[in-house]
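USER:
I would value a second opinion on how I read folds in token form. Give me a protein, with the fold worked out from its sequence. Write it directly below this note and I will take it from there.

ASSISTANT:
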Amino acid sequence: MSNCKVIAICNQKGGVGKTTTTVNLGIGLAMQGKRVLLIDADPQGDLTTSLGWQDSDNLNITLASKFIDVIKESNNNPLSGILHHNEGVDLLPSNLELSAMEFNLVNAMSRETTLKTYLNEVKTNYDYVLIDCMPSLGMITLNALSAADSVIIPVQAQFLPAKGMTQLLQTVSRVKKYINPKLNIEGILLTIVDNRTNLAKSTLEALRVNFGNRIKIYKTQIPSGIKAAETSSKGKSIYAYEPNSSVSKAYTEFTKEVLADDRKKERLHSHESR
């Protein structure tokens, strides 16, 4: 049985740092010796371009191809088309072809579990799979949640997220009830934090009041940073581009938090199974 953990990085609101978090958590885990696959589950292909594959429309094999392979039950090699980044992570890329899958999946057998079926073929090669979800709750995101063990929700510290968060939590709850009983929310990560304003404090307070009793809010907060925004055009992580920046240090701490939580859960699990 595979010990691979699949995490969906999810929020139906855009611009909250999902892709930046996927890149830097993924490469952070690789720097800790973990085997990591990143999956771009957004037709915009931001994860693909931010890792250096700027011409994503000319990629022959993408996540859309893998969906089609599963739907058509083809015998194509599941590992073909996976790209290797020089900072130690693998990437299953995406481009606009993925947007057509929203419609193709509607009529497919086991439409919510197509991605899960694919991942079952490759995840023995990895310790972690991180899925960068698109900012909507359509069929592709449903597939990501159905394939995931847990969800990390990045929240921008510049608005009160209660309404959108409630919708996302309802979706996660329905997926857990009807499709994927093991799905859990790993935690909420506060991103793009500007400590010069009180917005971060009021957002954190609102999250604690509304969700703090049932969802972990990570201690680490990701500060806003010009360099962090620049990395997406450089094809590098924040660690390679600006290793001494506050954003780099924050993602290092966040990676440690995620690993510590997993070790805690493993100990609990082994204790319960005795």
Remarks:
- The radius of gyration is 18 Å.
- Strands lie at 5-9, 36-41, 83-84, 89-92, 128-133, 150-156, 184-193, 217-223.
- The CA atoms of residues 29 and 259 lie 8 Å apart.
- The mean pLDDT is 90.
